[in-house]
Inverse folding.
Protein backbone atom coordinates (compact mmCIF):
# COMPACT_ATOMS: atom_id res chain seq x y z
CA UNK A 1 0.00 0.00 0.00
CA UNK A 2 2.65 2.54 -0.92
CA UNK A 3 3.03 5.59 -3.09
CA UNK A 4 6.00 6.47 -5.25
CA UNK A 5 6.71 10.20 -5.40
CA UNK A 6 8.86 11.88 -8.02
CA UNK A 7 8.25 15.51 -8.84
CA UNK A 8 11.52 15.54 -10.79
CA UNK A 9 13.19 16.05 -7.40
CA UNK A 10 11.52 19.43 -6.71
CA UNK A 11 9.60 20.55 -3.62
CA UNK A 12 9.23 17.04 -2.21
CA UNK A 13 8.63 18.49 1.26
CA UNK A 14 5.46 20.25 0.09
CA UNK A 15 4.31 17.15 -1.78
CA UNK A 16 4.93 14.93 1.25
CA UNK A 17 2.96 17.29 3.50
CA UNK A 18 0.01 17.21 1.09
CA UNK A 19 0.19 13.42 0.63
CA UNK A 20 0.23 12.81 4.40
CA UNK A 21 -2.72 15.21 4.75
CA UNK A 22 -5.00 13.89 1.98
CA UNK A 23 -3.80 10.27 1.67
CA UNK A 24 -3.13 9.46 5.33
CA UNK A 25 -1.75 6.09 6.28
CA UNK A 26 0.05 5.42 2.98
CA UNK A 27 3.79 4.86 2.91
CA UNK A 28 5.61 7.18 0.55
CA UNK A 29 8.80 6.22 -1.27
CA UNK A 30 10.69 9.13 -2.75
CA UNK A 31 12.25 8.21 -6.07
CA UNK A 32 14.95 6.93 -6.51
CA UNK A 33 15.06 5.54 -2.94
CA UNK A 34 12.53 2.72 -3.37
CA UNK A 35 13.19 0.13 -0.66
CA UNK A 36 10.38 -2.24 -1.73
CA UNK A 37 9.31 -1.97 -5.41
CA UNK A 38 6.57 -4.61 -4.86
CA UNK A 39 4.84 -2.31 -2.33
CA UNK A 40 4.26 0.49 -4.84
CA UNK A 41 0.61 0.76 -5.91
CA UNK A 42 0.39 4.36 -7.09
CA UNK A 43 3.03 6.49 -8.78
CA UNK A 44 2.77 10.29 -8.50
CA UNK A 45 5.31 11.48 -11.03
CA UNK A 46 6.56 14.31 -13.16
CA UNK A 47 9.21 13.89 -15.86
CA UNK A 48 9.75 10.36 -14.59
CA UNK A 49 12.45 8.39 -16.45
CA UNK A 50 11.33 6.05 -19.23
CA UNK A 51 11.24 2.37 -18.29
CA UNK A 52 11.18 2.83 -14.50
CA UNK A 53 7.39 2.52 -14.11
CA UNK A 54 7.60 -0.99 -15.52
CA UNK A 55 9.68 -2.15 -12.55
CA UNK A 56 6.84 -2.06 -9.99
CA UNK A 57 4.93 -5.36 -10.28
CA UNK A 58 1.89 -4.19 -8.28
CA UNK A 59 1.52 -0.71 -9.79
CA UNK A 60 -2.20 0.07 -10.14
CA UNK A 61 -2.18 3.62 -11.54
CA UNK A 62 0.11 6.46 -12.51
CA UNK A 63 -0.84 10.05 -11.66
CA UNK A 64 1.03 12.72 -13.58
CA UNK A 65 1.79 15.79 -11.47
CA UNK A 66 1.16 18.07 -14.45
CA UNK A 67 -1.46 18.39 -17.14
CA UNK A 68 1.00 17.86 -19.99
CA UNK A 69 2.20 14.29 -20.35
CA UNK A 70 4.64 14.74 -23.22
CA UNK A 71 7.39 13.12 -21.11
CA UNK A 72 5.22 9.97 -20.95
CA UNK A 73 4.29 10.31 -24.62
CA UNK A 74 8.02 10.09 -25.36
CA UNK A 75 8.32 6.62 -23.73
CA UNK A 76 8.74 3.85 -26.29
CA UNK A 77 6.40 1.64 -24.24
CA UNK A 78 3.84 2.69 -21.67
CA UNK A 79 3.42 0.97 -18.30
CA UNK A 80 0.43 -1.39 -18.14
CA UNK A 81 -1.20 0.62 -15.36
CA UNK A 82 -3.54 3.44 -16.46
CA UNK A 83 -2.09 6.94 -16.55
CA UNK A 84 -4.09 9.94 -15.34
CA UNK A 85 -3.41 13.55 -16.20
CA UNK A 86 -3.70 16.20 -13.54
CA UNK A 87 -6.36 18.70 -14.51
CA UNK A 88 -6.50 21.07 -11.59
CA UNK A 89 -9.05 23.91 -11.89
CA UNK A 90 -6.72 26.10 -9.77
CA UNK A 91 -3.96 25.61 -12.36
CA UNK A 92 -6.31 26.20 -15.30
CA UNK A 93 -7.47 29.44 -13.67
CA UNK A 94 -3.86 30.57 -13.12
CA UNK A 95 -3.13 29.94 -16.78
CA UNK A 96 -6.27 31.80 -17.83
CA UNK A 97 -5.24 34.83 -15.77
CA UNK A 98 -1.72 34.71 -17.21
CA UNK A 99 -3.22 34.66 -20.72
CA UNK A 100 -5.67 37.46 -19.87
CA UNK A 101 -2.76 39.60 -18.60
CA UNK A 102 -0.79 39.26 -21.86
CA UNK A 103 -3.93 39.64 -23.96
CA UNK A 104 -4.57 43.01 -22.31
CA UNK A 105 -0.87 43.83 -22.70
CA UNK A 106 -1.27 43.48 -26.47
CA UNK A 107 -4.74 45.08 -26.64
CA UNK A 108 -3.78 48.18 -24.63
CA UNK A 109 -0.30 48.59 -26.17
CA UNK A 110 1.44 48.47 -22.79
CA UNK A 111 4.81 47.77 -24.40
CA UNK A 112 4.47 50.96 -26.47
CA UNK A 113 3.61 53.02 -23.38
CA UNK A 114 6.55 51.53 -21.48
CA UNK A 115 8.95 52.70 -24.21
CA UNK A 116 7.22 56.10 -24.37
CA UNK A 117 7.76 56.47 -20.63
CA UNK A 118 11.51 55.93 -21.13
CA UNK A 119 11.46 59.01 -23.43
CA UNK A 120 9.06 61.01 -21.15
CA UNK A 121 6.77 61.04 -24.17
CA UNK A 122 2.98 61.56 -23.69
CA UNK A 123 0.89 60.20 -26.55
CA UNK A 124 -2.37 58.27 -26.49
CA UNK A 125 -3.34 55.78 -29.20
CA UNK A 126 -6.85 54.58 -29.99
CA UNK A 127 -7.22 50.93 -28.93
CA UNK A 128 -9.94 48.42 -29.77
CA UNK A 129 -12.55 47.51 -27.19
CA UNK A 130 -12.47 43.90 -25.98
CA UNK A 131 -15.34 42.73 -28.26
CA UNK A 132 -13.35 44.03 -31.24
CA UNK A 133 -10.17 42.26 -30.17
CA UNK A 134 -10.10 38.72 -31.50
CA UNK A 135 -8.23 35.99 -29.61
CA UNK A 136 -7.67 32.57 -31.14
CA UNK A 137 -6.81 29.53 -29.08
CA UNK A 138 -5.09 26.51 -30.59
CA UNK A 139 -6.08 23.50 -28.50
CA UNK A 140 -9.45 23.28 -26.78
CA UNK A 141 -8.69 20.60 -24.19
CA UNK A 142 -9.36 21.07 -20.48
CA UNK A 143 -6.92 23.99 -20.17
CA UNK A 144 -7.49 25.68 -23.55
CA UNK A 145 -11.26 25.62 -23.19
CA UNK A 146 -11.05 27.14 -19.69
CA UNK A 147 -8.78 29.93 -20.95
CA UNK A 148 -11.21 30.53 -23.82
CA UNK A 149 -14.15 30.85 -21.41
CA UNK A 150 -12.31 33.31 -19.17
CA UNK A 151 -11.31 35.49 -22.13
CA UNK A 152 -14.89 35.38 -23.45
CA UNK A 153 -16.27 36.29 -20.01
CA UNK A 154 -13.98 39.33 -20.05
CA UNK A 155 -15.64 40.44 -23.26
CA UNK A 156 -13.06 39.42 -25.87
CA UNK A 157 -14.05 37.87 -29.16
CA UNK A 158 -12.77 34.31 -28.86
CA UNK A 159 -12.26 31.57 -31.40
CA UNK A 160 -11.08 28.12 -30.39
CA UNK A 161 -9.49 25.66 -32.78
CA UNK A 162 -9.33 21.92 -32.30
CA UNK A 163 -8.64 19.06 -34.68
CA UNK A 164 -12.11 17.57 -34.23
CA UNK A 165 -15.35 19.52 -33.73
CA UNK A 166 -16.06 20.85 -30.22
CA UNK A 167 -18.48 23.36 -28.84
CA UNK A 168 -18.25 25.80 -25.92
CA UNK A 169 -20.69 28.56 -25.07
CA UNK A 170 -19.45 32.04 -25.97
CA UNK A 171 -16.62 30.68 -28.12
CA UNK A 172 -16.55 30.46 -31.91
CA UNK A 173 -15.35 26.87 -32.22
CA UNK A 174 -13.65 25.85 -35.46
CA UNK A 175 -11.82 22.70 -36.43
CA UNK A 176 -9.66 21.07 -39.05
CA UNK A 177 -7.36 22.73 -41.56
CA UNK A 178 -10.13 24.85 -43.05
CA UNK A 179 -11.20 26.17 -39.66
CA UNK A 180 -7.62 27.12 -38.89
CA UNK A 181 -6.99 28.94 -42.16
CA UNK A 182 -10.27 30.79 -41.71
CA UNK A 183 -9.40 32.29 -38.31
CA UNK A 184 -5.63 32.90 -38.53
CA UNK A 185 -5.75 36.07 -40.66
CA UNK A 186 -8.48 37.52 -38.40
CA UNK A 187 -6.71 37.17 -35.06
CA UNK A 188 -5.24 39.92 -32.92
CA UNK A 189 -3.66 37.39 -30.56
CA UNK A 190 -2.91 33.71 -31.04
CA UNK A 191 -2.69 31.59 -27.87
CA UNK A 192 -0.99 28.20 -28.00
CA UNK A 193 -2.55 25.59 -25.68
CA UNK A 194 -1.72 22.52 -27.75
CA UNK A 195 -0.28 19.46 -26.05
CA UNK A 196 3.10 18.38 -27.41
CA UNK A 197 3.05 15.15 -29.37
CA UNK A 198 4.27 13.90 -32.72
CA UNK A 199 1.42 15.69 -34.51
CA UNK A 200 2.02 19.05 -32.86
CA UNK A 201 5.84 19.36 -32.81
CA UNK A 202 6.60 22.63 -34.65
CA UNK A 203 2.90 22.95 -35.53
CA UNK A 204 3.30 26.73 -35.31
CA UNK A 205 5.77 27.07 -38.16
CA UNK A 206 6.72 29.74 -40.70
CA UNK A 207 3.68 28.94 -42.82
CA UNK A 208 1.21 29.27 -39.92
CA UNK A 209 2.88 32.42 -38.57
CA UNK A 210 2.79 33.88 -42.08
CA UNK A 211 -1.00 33.57 -42.08
CA UNK A 212 -1.33 35.85 -39.04
CA UNK A 213 -2.05 39.47 -39.78
CA UNK A 214 0.61 42.13 -39.27
CA UNK A 215 0.61 43.30 -35.66
CA UNK A 216 -0.79 40.10 -34.13
CA UNK A 217 0.56 38.94 -30.75
CA UNK A 218 1.47 35.41 -29.72
CA UNK A 219 1.15 33.77 -26.29
CA UNK A 220 2.52 30.29 -25.59
CA UNK A 221 1.46 28.49 -22.41
CA UNK A 222 1.78 24.88 -23.58
CA UNK A 223 5.14 23.54 -24.72
CA UNK A 224 8.01 25.31 -26.45
CA UNK A 225 8.47 22.63 -29.11
CA UNK A 226 4.97 23.28 -30.50
CA UNK A 227 6.54 26.39 -32.02
CA UNK A 228 9.38 26.41 -34.55
CA UNK A 229 11.41 28.92 -32.53
CA UNK A 230 13.68 29.90 -35.44
CA UNK A 231 10.62 30.66 -37.58
CA UNK A 232 9.13 32.75 -34.76
CA UNK A 233 12.36 34.74 -34.35
CA UNK A 234 12.46 35.34 -38.12
CA UNK A 235 8.87 36.62 -38.04
CA UNK A 236 9.60 38.89 -35.06
CA UNK A 237 12.76 40.21 -36.75
CA UNK A 238 10.69 41.16 -39.79
CA UNK A 239 8.52 43.21 -37.44
CA UNK A 240 5.37 41.44 -38.61
CA UNK A 241 4.23 40.51 -35.11
CA UNK A 242 3.46 42.87 -32.22
CA UNK A 243 5.32 40.55 -29.88
CA UNK A 244 5.39 37.20 -28.14
CA UNK A 245 4.77 36.30 -24.50
CA UNK A 246 6.53 32.98 -24.06
CA UNK A 247 6.28 30.88 -20.90
CA UNK A 248 7.68 27.68 -22.40
CA UNK A 249 10.64 26.84 -24.60
CA UNK A 250 11.97 23.92 -26.57
CA UNK A 251 14.94 23.80 -24.16
CA UNK A 252 14.28 24.63 -20.50
CA UNK A 253 15.75 26.38 -18.63
CA UNK A 254 16.04 28.73 -21.59
CA UNK A 255 19.77 28.77 -22.46
CA UNK A 256 21.58 32.04 -21.72
CA UNK A 257 22.56 32.18 -25.39
CA UNK A 258 18.91 32.25 -26.57
CA UNK A 259 17.97 35.34 -28.58
CA UNK A 260 14.57 35.35 -26.88
CA UNK A 261 16.13 36.79 -23.69
CA UNK A 262 17.04 40.10 -25.28
CA UNK A 263 14.59 40.35 -28.15
CA UNK A 264 12.72 43.68 -27.81
CA UNK A 265 9.41 42.08 -28.82
CA UNK A 266 9.60 39.07 -26.51
CA UNK A 267 8.53 38.64 -22.89
CA UNK A 268 10.06 35.57 -21.29
CA UNK A 269 8.64 33.89 -18.18
CA UNK A 270 10.15 30.70 -16.69
CA UNK A 271 7.34 28.14 -17.23
CA UNK A 272 5.25 29.61 -14.41
CA UNK A 273 1.92 30.31 -16.08
CA UNK A 274 0.32 27.37 -14.26
CA UNK A 275 2.63 25.77 -11.72
CA UNK A 276 1.21 22.71 -9.98
CA UNK A 277 0.10 23.43 -6.44
CA UNK A 278 0.77 20.35 -4.26
CA UNK A 279 -2.13 21.04 -1.90
CA UNK A 280 -4.86 21.36 -4.55
CA UNK A 281 -3.24 18.69 -6.75
CA UNK A 282 -3.10 16.01 -4.04
CA UNK A 283 -6.73 16.69 -3.09
CA UNK A 284 -7.65 15.85 -6.70
CA UNK A 285 -5.39 12.79 -6.79
CA UNK A 286 -6.78 11.52 -3.45
CA UNK A 287 -10.32 11.87 -4.81
CA UNK A 288 -9.28 10.03 -7.99
CA UNK A 289 -7.60 7.22 -6.04
CA UNK A 290 -10.77 6.82 -3.93
CA UNK A 291 -12.85 6.64 -7.13
CA UNK A 292 -10.40 4.18 -8.69
CA UNK A 293 -10.49 1.94 -5.60
CA UNK A 294 -14.30 1.88 -5.79
CA UNK A 295 -13.95 0.54 -9.34
CA UNK A 296 -14.51 3.86 -11.12
CA UNK A 297 -12.30 5.68 -13.60
CA UNK A 298 -10.97 9.19 -13.00
CA UNK A 299 -11.95 11.60 -15.76
CA UNK A 300 -8.63 12.51 -17.35
CA UNK A 301 -7.17 9.20 -18.42
CA UNK A 302 -4.28 9.56 -20.83
CA UNK A 303 -4.47 7.53 -23.99
CA UNK A 304 -1.67 7.45 -26.45
CA UNK A 305 -3.08 8.85 -29.61
CA UNK A 306 -1.77 11.22 -32.21
CA UNK A 307 -4.19 14.08 -31.91
CA UNK A 308 -3.37 17.73 -31.77
CA UNK A 309 -6.10 18.93 -29.46
C1 LIG B 1 3.03 22.03 -16.80
O1 LIG B 1 3.65 22.44 -17.71
C2 LIG B 1 2.03 21.00 -16.91
O2 LIG B 1 1.94 20.34 -17.94
O3 LIG B 1 1.27 20.84 -15.95
Amino acid sequence: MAILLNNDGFWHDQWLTAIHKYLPGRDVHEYPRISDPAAIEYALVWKHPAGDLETYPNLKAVFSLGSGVDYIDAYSTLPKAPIFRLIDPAMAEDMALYTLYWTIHFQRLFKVYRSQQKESHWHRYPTPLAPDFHIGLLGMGAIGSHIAKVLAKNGFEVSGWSRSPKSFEGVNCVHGEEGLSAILPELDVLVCCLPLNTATRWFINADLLGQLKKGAGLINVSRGAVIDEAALLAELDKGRLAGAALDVFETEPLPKSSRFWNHPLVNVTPHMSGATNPDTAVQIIARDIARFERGGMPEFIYQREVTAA
